[in-house]
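Support reply, case 0932

Customer input (verbatim):
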Amino acid sequence: VISMFYRSPKKVCQFGLVLACAGFLASCDRLLTPDFNTDVTELRSGAYVLDPDHATLLWKINHLGFSTFIGRFNDFDASLDFDPDNIANSSLEVVINTAGLDINNEVFAEELLGSNWFDAETFPQAVYRSTSLVETVDEDTFLFEGDLTLKGVTAPVQLEINFHGGGRNFLTRSYTMGFSATGKFMRSDFGLDRFTSFGVGDEIELEIHVEFQEASEES
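Our regenerated output:
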């Protein structure tokens, strides 16, 4: 019984070191960004520009009921005009270069960029602009209405945006804000309706993860 509770000095030291390391890692984000704040109303207002090194734009579609096919756009830019005191006054613009399509399949990617699909040569960019606040979901999540222009067609698309917080990034020394967003739209609304009658999904799901830096600090 005694041996069950006995720990050698070496093991006690190792255990203490593990606990110390765990505590350090748990608080590491606070050490690196001591002014980080998750309260939306405490974030800085003003113009922000996208940090392209920390930006991900994914799209998902049902593939014949077997799986979810996932692609991404690697080349896009965005600007955010943020008003924490009145979120409805905030606005977001995203410009996507369709040639930046990435599906980890070069042959199929070329087909998708062709005239039967995105027709990237004729329509090299897709643009999303927020237009109004639809709903405050909770203290840091907001549903925005916006217009998506794709293949020359403009139609409304809603984005649910969740603000993660903001603070000074110790690597860049720039005040940084981050959020994630999700949205859905029907690809057939934009003339991308091939194979919808054969079981390839019409609904596109968007998933966005981004960081923005204060524009004044970038200039």
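We compared this against your earlier run and they match. Two observations from our side: The CA atoms of residues 21 and 174 lie 28 Å apart. The mean pLDDT is 89. Please reopen the case if you see a mismatch on your end.
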